Structure formats: C-alpha cells, structure tokens
Amino acid sequence: MSRPERHHPQPDPTTENINAIVEVERQAIRRASFGERVGQAISDVVGTMLFVSVHAAVMIAWIAWNGLAPAALRFDPYPFGLLTFIVSLEGVLIATFVLIAQNRMSRQSDERDHLSLQISMLGEQELTLILKLLRRMSERLGMPPQSEEEMRAEKLSEETNVFELVRTLREQLPEAEGRRSSSRSN
Fold first, then answer.
1. In this structure, how many other beta carbons lie within 10 angstroms of the beta carbon of residue 97?
2. Alpha carbon distance 155, 128 (integer Å)
3. Residues 6 or more apart in contact with residue 176 via CB below 8 angstroms
4. Based on C-alpha coordinates, what's the Rg of the chain?
5. What is the reported pTM?
6. What pLDDT tens digit does each residue of the chain (186 aa) get?
C-alpha cells in the first residue's frame, strides 16, 4: 500500500511580494531614530482634523474669554500677546517636527526608488537575455522574423546603457529646455 502523495502548496508570488514589502517597511520603522519617531508621532497628530478643531476651539475660547470676561479675570487682554507667543512657538515646533517626518519619508522614498531602479535594471537585463535566446532559437528552427520585427528585436536585444539614457532624458525633458533657453538669454 503506497502513501498518497502530499502536495505542498506552491508559494503565492503575490503573498511573498506583500510579505517582502511589509518586512522592508518594518525594518525602516525599526531603523528610525527616537527623534524621528517622535517627529512622526507629532506630525500624525497635528495632521488631523481633530487637532485643527480642538486647536480652533481653544483659540476661540481664549479670545472670547480675554475679550468678554470681566477685566479682573482676563489673563491675556487684547492684543493677546501671550496667545501670539504660544501660537508662534507652536508653529515653529510643529514645522520642525513636520520637517523631521518629511526628511525620514524622503529617505524611505529614495531607498524605494533605488530598489525599484535595481529591480527594473535586472528585469531589463533578463529580458535582453531572453530576446537573445529567442533569436537564436528562431534561427535554429529556420523561422525567419519579419523585417520590422527583426529590426525591433535587434535593437531591444542590445544592452541598455543607463548613463546614456539619463543623459538623453536630462537633455530632452521640458525643464531642461527651459534652463537652456534661460541660460542663452543671459
């Protein structure tokens, strides 16, 4: 009596990719410094409508109390110097925390862009190799490609020079044209 074969489920590429992305994000969170985590937490709170609503309510109450309460009970009479000082200090601190969070997000974005570029370059190299193999197989099988297909396949099977692509993009992007024309007029 033979045992039934056990079928091990094949890993799902989508699930594997999601797990890899989640792990990359977890590592980024673990690498964040204490200051970055504090800055992000404050930015997360400040960037909500609840914060704006509470903030507006406190300011309205402050102004109303110091404008309408009996003179003896007013702690910050018009022109509300203390309120102005607190709001100014708060603005500087919030701006600093938001910049800390943005710097961290910018570094993460740069890392993702570098990873994406690396994956794209590897994909391009793999596709170039596949095209070369397909051309050789086609030649051995005696299947001549159409002339237009042959020219495209020939061009696509060449190695891509990333530095040449970057140079061409820089020269041809609209913002580069604007810089060139403004430098000519100077």
1. 20
2. 10
3. 170
4. 31
5. 0.60
6. 555 566 667 778 888 888 888 888 888 888 888 888 888 888 889 889 999 999 999 999 999 999 999 999 999 999 999 999 999 999 999 999 888 888 888 988 998 898 888 888 888 888 888 888 888 888 888 877 677 777 777 777 778 788 888 888 888 888 755 565 665 655
What are the tokens at 186? 């100077």
Cα gap 77→125, rounded to integer Å: 71
Overall size of the chain counted in residues: 186
